[in-house]
Amino acid sequence: MRSLCLAGSPRAALSHLHPIALAAALLTLSPAWAQSPPAEQATTQTEAASTADAVVEPKSLDHITISGARESASTRLPLTPRENPQSTNTVDRAQMERQSLTSIDAVLRNVTGIAVSFYDTQRPLYYARGFQITDFKVDGLPTYSGGTNQEYDTALYERIDVVRGANGILTAIGVPSATVDMIRKRPQREFAASVALTAGSWNLWRGELDLNAPLNSDGSVRSRLVVAPQTKESFRDRYQEDKTALLAAIEADLGNATVATVGFQRQRNVPEAPIWGTIPRFAADGGLANLPVSTSFSPSWTRWERTSSTLYANVDHQINEDWSAKVSLNHTEGDSFRLATYGSGYLNRSTGAGLTLRAAVSGGTETQDTLDAYLSGKVQLGGRKHDVVVGMSASRVEAHTDSYSSLTGWTYNIPNLYTWDGSAPAPTYRATGAFTEQITRQTGLYASARWRLSDPLSLLTGARITDWHRQTDAYNTSGAYTSTSAIQDENRKITPFLGVVYELTPTLSAYASHSRIFNPQNYKDVNNQPLSAVVGSNTEAGLKAELLERRVQANLALFQTKQNNYGVRDSSVPEASLPDGTSAYKTVNGTRSHGFEIEVSGLINRQWRAKAGFTRTMVTRAATDLIYANLPEYQLQLGSDYQFTGALAPLSIGGDVQWQSKIVGYNIPHPTLGTVTVTESPMALVNLRATWKFNPKLSATLAINNLTSKKYWANLDYPNYGDPRNVSVTLRAQF
Q1: Rounded Cα–Cα distance for residues 122 and 274 (Å)
Q2: How far apart are the first and last CA of the chain?
Q3: pLDDT for residue 12 is more than 60
């Protein structure tokens, strides 16, 4: 179903290897890479890979013409990867299907420079350049996560773009880590359909239906429907989750220059017995508890449900040959409910006693309305054409949090963890009728441009001016308004962007960029005054090359990322000492990271696709800047896929290795020593896969993750185990 893998368009047409030594090596080799086909034939590694997937017997790629320019997820300028002065990655539909990547978690584990961790089963964590990734978008607009990153299902998306660094132009509010932009599937002009059925470990059952249907004879009105239900149990006792993802869209050509799209997207996650809290690392005697990976402190009546629904509309208009306009509107409603337990105390290894269950209940809804409109085009200046984007965005988020009767008095002492079957009496609770409403409003004007100063030299500039407001209103049990608190305002906040790209050869560019972002924080100081916003920045420089007739891309990036004015607990005063019962915070500076990223990926030849990515991230934090994240200094990713020929032409095999250096956790609670420092040794996770194409439209894929079933901690400060070995088989048919 190759037509479904093409994004729709509204318009026709290593620590001891010094980075400088690496740069010199790349420059020395660059003449051998220099191939000069027309710019419109420049092919990114993901696009070339997508095209290669369309055949059973590998064919020559000589006649393939694909444009590499794509709207940047940080500036909206039309840039190829080599023209973008930031580190970028794209995971396309073909790669998701080839590697059986059905969740955003699985995708980000395959992106260079991303460290994956989590608090517990419903709260995955992703880090880039030492900072948590909080900027998740769909088609360039913010999306609901409900504090859990929603575990986005990839069935709805054509590709996922990742830009590392600060994204102050399009986002303004956030962390200088990375932006993850999930691009929805769009209706196409010709009929196509596919069905995928997956079975796997822990009673995994999953289906995917992708139906693209024109609604008239010429396809000027067209539709697309994607449905992906899934049910899965777990290696964790009692835990299971049902998940459904849905996308329905209609697109129409309104004349020759305008395309309008309306659609609806929904995802619902319903887990039973979710993990909330941690698995004890230490026993009561101070030794290691060594509990099995199946350990859970969640009875079967616990829940953590999340639902997100988005109604969206887009209008694209081609004004003339050089200028176009786009308006996008999203209305998103999300809700969540959690009744969860966690285990506290330390295990008596002789009796199995010593652990107590405690519980909490929470719930609420969130409504987001987002408008984004922009013009993009070219201006003539100094005898050259330059790319320009000018736009505005506005959003309003209303978060409604319900109040429930307290469960602080509910406890259950586990008599013997070794024989406990998960049974515990369910607590009684009720909604009190009281609630809070937190309103967050943001408006912004932004502009970006690429100035072509000479044939090889481009200067990229950009800025955003943002007004931001947040307040929290409280209502009592009868629904009457009682007070407003936590009023915060950031007015006319400017976030700049500056970049330069120099084309050393037709296939090798050098670049540098600096970007900023800010992030309001909901903390107050000892004087009960709100802390000012955190200020983040990212500076990087590097080289980007296209090799082997542009089938392979190579990147080298040196970076420094900072966060100043970051809020941490003020230990000079007791906890909960402020008038509203919260704790005082103070700001610290100097939280920063620096390092480098190296990546080479693409088609080595017609049959062999390979990837290698190596990252070093050194993080410096204030002593009081404590986070539930333990990040490796070094990460290495190796991946390869090989398509056989001859009698084995239907078979392709592949695999990848994800290695990280040791991680260290500081100030970890210990039953006899108070706190200790703990270390997780370097480790590697190995994944394998194989696909057999019975014919061009029918295939079966076997995927094995964590082949050696390595037992490891996914986090040290907030300890929980990572997934052991799991296997899945997917049968995919196209029509």
Answers
A1: 7
A2: 7
A3: no
